[in-house]
TrEMBL record:
Protein's cellular compartments: Membrane
Membrane topology: Multi-pass membrane protein
Native organism: Luteococcus peritonei
Keywords: Cell membrane, Membrane, Transmembrane, Transmembrane helix
Primary subcellular site in the record, as a coarse category: membrane
Pfam families (alphabetical): CbiQ
Domain of life according to the entry: Bacteria
Membrane-spanning residues: 20-49, 61-79, 99-121, 227-247
Protein name: Energy-coupling factor transporter transmembrane component T family protein
Length: 255
């Protein structure tokens, strides 16, 4: 079943990387809960307007339901103390200040993950390489090496499955789970190094490492959709800053 096309597919892959960075900067330099909440709500609204499959997207965000609470609990216990102290034991102190920080961290984890996941999860590797080389003008050697590595990521799962089946065929797959995992991980590392060496040799033989100027089969351009995406991202950041400043919760990392 093919993935439903969304408005995000009209964006240049290189522009999608930049847009994810633009959306992340306001959330990285602030600590208050309101700016993160406003950014999170705005991001979800934009994704819905772009016709993103929200159910599928929510499944991708599911692991954060474990990560975000862990970070929030740590912040609540060991964050900066201020206001009323609710509980204290040793180095751990729960206060009004640390609880607000914990809430802000919980929201900010999702607000930071959504742009990165929305912009980069379904990007075609070849189009991304074209954009990085032609739009961002990164070195072609770096771009092509990254593309080759990206293409081989999908092989790790198949290699892991094959290694597991081979061990079970030899009667070694049902005992010593930790030892089996360590041995399989080492075997996978060896396979990856061998594959990388062969791939590098093949690419050098085909002229991918030549110092001459490289041409590209597909032209990569930025257009109106990318400009509109940049305006939307800037608007989300400005809205988050403005809301936090208006209601007096704005808290910068250096303050």
């Amino acid at each position: 079943m093919s993935r439903r096309r969304t408005a995000l597919d009209a964006l240049n892959p290189a522009a999608r990387v930049l847009l994810a960075v633009v959306l992340s900067i306001p959330l990285i330099i602030t600590l208050d809960w309101l700016s993160a909440l406003v950014a999170l709500v705005a991001e979800l609204v934009v994704l819905a307007l772009c016709r993103v499959d929200m159910v599928r997207f929510a499944k991708r965000l599911a692991p954060l339901l474990l990560v975000a609470p862990l970070g929030s609990v740590s912040m609540a216990l060991y964050g900066e103390v201020g206001g009323r102290t609710w509980w204290h034991w040793g180095p751990a102190t729960i206060s009004d200040h640390s609880l607000w920080l914990a809430l802000a961290l919980f929201i900010r984890v999702f607000a930071l993950a959504i742009p990165a996941m929305a912009m980069l999860a379904d990007v075609d590797g070849t189009r991304m390489a074209d954009g990085l080389a032609q739009v961002l003008h990164l070195p072609s050697r770096f771009v092509l090496g990254s593309l080759a590595g990206f293409r081989t990521l999908g092989l790790f799962t198949a290699d892991w499955r094959t290694l597991g089946q081979a061990r079970r065929a030899r009667g070694l797959g049902d005992e010593g789970r930790m030892r089996r995992w360590a041995l399989m991980a080492f075997s996978l590392l060896v396979l990856a190094l061998r594959r990388g060496a062969k791939l590098a040799t093949a690419m050098e033989a085909k002229g991918f490492g030549s110092p001459v100027a490289r041409t590209w089969a597909r032209e990569s351009r930025v257009g109106r959709a990318d400009a509109l995406g940049l305006l939307v991202c800037l608007a989300i950041g400005a809205l988050a800053f403005g809301a936090a400043w208006h209601w007096g919760t704005l808290w910068m990392v250096w303050s």
